[in-house]
Design goal:
Blueprint lengths: L1 E10 L4 E12 L2 E13 L4 E12 L2 E16 L2 E9 L8 E9 L3
Antiparallel strand pairs: 1-2, 2-3, 3-4, 4-5, 5-6, 6-7
């Protein structure tokens, strides 16, 4: 299994930014192509919200799309906590998720 991602990040203002990317994933003898686009807004240096669209494509399967939104909190300069919720916009009532995360920057 391997993947390749080309990503970018752009700050429009001090508090508002975006990210976007495309990629390729080889998993269990299947080829997947994906893309994503997100927007984020920082309320403070430690608290921000985000939303994003993402899609996975495979020549053998129907495309899968998703949208999510979330909240990030920078607990320390190297520790970030986040929570997000999302769904498949084609069938919101049947497919949704709630996610939490912890990120730590090692030096």
């Amino acid at each position: 299994n391997y993947s390749f991602i080309l990503a970018s990040d752009k700050q429009f203002t001090e508090n508002f930014g975006s990210s976007a990317g495309i990629g390729y994933l080889k998993e269990e003898m299947k080829d997947y192509y994906f893309l994503f686009f997100g927007l984020d807004y920082s309320f403070t240096d430690r608290l921000a919200i985000f939303t994003e669209y993402y899609g996975y494509f495979n020549s053998n399967l129907s495309p899968e799309h998703g949208v999510d939104f979330g909240l990030t909190y920078l607990a320390t300069p190297r520790l970030q906590l986040d929570i997000s919720a999302g769904s498949n916009p084609q069938n919101i009532s049947a497919e949704y998720y709630l996610s939490t995360g912890i990120s730590y920057q090692f030096r």
